[in-house]
Design brief:
Strand content of chain A: 5-15%
Largest sheet of chain A: 8 strands, parallel
Order of helices and strands of chain A: EHEHEHHEHEEHEHHHEHEHHH
Strand order of the largest sheet of chain A: 8-7-6-5-4-3-2-9
Number of domains of chain B: 1
Oligomer: heterodimer
Radius of gyration of chain B: 15 Å
Shape of chain B: globular
Structural class of chain B: alpha/beta
Largest sheet of chain B: 7 strands, mixed
Distance between the termini of chain B: 13 Å
Structural class of chain A: alpha/beta
Radius of gyration of chain A: 18 Å
CATH architecture of chain B: 3-Layer(aba) Sandwich
Number of strands of chain A: 9
Number of strands of chain B: 12
Number of helices of chain B: 5
Number of helices of chain A: 13
Helix content of chain B: 10-25%
Strand order of the largest sheet of chain B: 2-1-3-4-12-11-10
CATH topology of chain B: Rossmann fold
Chain lengths: 295, 188
């Protein structure tokens, strides 16, 4: 019996198993256990949540492997960790740790301002951020097995997540309605390979799972992103920077499952305590916008 | 005939698409009231801890157990198989589950995502090998007398089993284009 490991189907397939779920940022074992207990489908292990990275400034790098291993040992659900954009050695290190997914993330300071990591060279699957369809398709071409719309991490403000999801889905709908001869120019404008553009146009959907991320802070935020058409949500600072993380985490999980049921969303939104403090994105200087990282 | 697909979390859309392509009516199940008029049930892959917790929160555990005990044909893939097994090994100690099949499951029995794999397996009831996908997959073990092994790996580890109207597979036929196991399920 021939067994083939780390195939494209197994890489993209794990993301399919995460659909309809919430992936939560955690900075230690205690938070990881709270996340698992609340019903998270996976955790993102990192030293600082995006809100703290934003506040403290400086260069944000891959987390301490020791921390990632401790988190991995504390839960039974999949564990993800972030590598800097283009830092393929951080990615090699994370693969060596035997975690389940790498996020090549704009939340960390990019290591390469021209090239992303060639993800085809890895056995471990990657998730990447995107703000529009061109970015999404370039990341898939580089080997990403899962996408997430970027949003603006660490702000507690969902407006950019909404903008990016609407952009990606709107561009897909536009492609879907194009005639074959229009697709050549569409591929040129999207700066993405023609064959991939054509297959997305025909299918009317992305070939990989696409979650929302960046600024989701409430159960209604999560349900909003689900109704816009994403497959699941990442919640970063929104849970552990809030007044009652365990309760809010559980509520966001329920709102993600029952995203079309307003009565349930209302019920789980009661008495959640304080949400994280949000940032008005128009007040942020351009050079502090994380979503602009990625090429 | 209407097949319900438990839609709390995971790869339920893939099962729906496969069933629709065979021409079967499908309904997503999120709440107990959704079960009315459903003849069969698929519990999809996903995270067994998440699906189990949502089953408890939305009072699905008891009605599902009752319907399955009363003979509703039910198939669990991966997380679904874990939730159907009588005992979960390497899970969370308090992990909620249906516990309707007389077989044990061991979560993540092959290791991390790096050990996920594709393989051709022989399965009793199918005329030719089935190419399928194992993702952070469980194995099944210690089947009771009424539980029949349908497929094993070369090393003997059990990956598919049937007990009367109940079917459990460690792997994901819904991620392939081969609908033979879905058709087999519809005959149970």
């Amino acid at each position: 019996m021939a067994i083939e490991k780390s195939t494209w189907t197994t890489k993209a397939g794990l993301a399919q198993m995460l659909k309809g779920g919430v992936i939560m940022d955690v900075i230690d074992e205690e938070q990881a256990k709270i996340a698992e207990e609340a019903g998270a489908v996976a955790v993102m292990a990192l030293e600082r949540v995006p809100a703290d990275i934003r506040r403290q400034g400086g260069v944000a790098r891959m987390s301490d492997p020791e921390l990632i291993i401790r988190i991995k040992e504390s839960v039974t659900i999949p564990v993800m960790a972030k590598a800097r954009i283009g830092h393929f050695v951080e990615a090699q290190v994370l693969e060596a740790l035997g975690i389940d997914y790498i996020d090549e993330s704009e939340v960390l300071t990019p290591a390469d301002d021209e090239f992303h990591t060639d993800k085809h060279k890895f056995k471990i699957p990657f998730v990447n951020g995107c703000k529009n369809l061109g970015e999404a398709l370039r990341r898939i071409t580089e080997g990403a097995a899962m996408l997430r719309t970027k949003g603006e991490a660490g702000t507690g403000n969902v407006v950019e997540a909404v903008r990016h999801a609407r952009t990606v889905f709107g561009e897909i709908r536009k492609l879907h309605g194009m005639s074959e001869d229009e697709l050549f120019t569409a591929a040129k404008n999207l700066q993405a390979p023609y064959d991939l553009v054509k297959s997305v146009a025909q299918a009317g959907r992305l070939p990989v799972v696409n979650f929302a991320a960046g600024g989701i802070a409430t159960p209604a935020d999560a349900a909003l992103m689900m109704q816009l058409g994403v497959d699941g949500v990442f919640v970063g600072s929104g849970i552990f920077k809030s007044g009652d993380p365990a309760k809010r985490a559980k509520a966001i999980v329920q709102a993600t499952t029952h995203y079309r049921d307003a009565a349930i969303i209302a019920e789980v939104s009661k008495h959640l305590g304080e949400a994280m403090v949000g940032i008005e994105i128009s007040k942020l200087p351009q050079d502090q916008l994380l979503a602009n990282r990625g090429w | 005939m209407t097949v319900g697909v438990l839609a709390l979390q995971g790869a339920f859309v893939e099962h729906e698409a496969m069933l629709r392509s065979i021409g079967v009516d499908v309904r997503q199940i999120r709440l107990p009231r959704d079960l009315t008029g459903v003849d069969r049930l698929i519990i999809p892959g996903g995270e067994s801890t998440t699906i189990g917790k949502l089953m408890v929160m939305y009072d699905l555990l008891v009605p599902l157990r009752e319907r399955i005990a009363a003979g509703m044909p039910t198939w669990g893939t991966c997380a679904g198989a874990i939730l159907m097994s009588r005992r979960i090994l390497d899970g969370r100690p308090d992990q909620p589950a249906l516990q309707v099949m007389d077989i044990e499951s061991r979560r993540n029995a092959f290791g991390s995502q790096l050990d996920s794999f594709e393989a051709d397996i022989d399965m009793i009831g199918l005329d030719a090998p089935f190419h399928t996908v194992f993702i952070r997959a469980p194995i099944l073990q210690n089947p009771g007398p009424a539980c029949h092994v349908l497929a094993s790996l070369a090393d003997g580890r059990i990956v598919a089993a049937r007990e009367q109207h109940m079917l459990a597979t460690s792997f994901h036929p819904e991620l392939t284009s081969d609908d033979r196991i879905h058709r087999y399920f519809l005959t149970l």
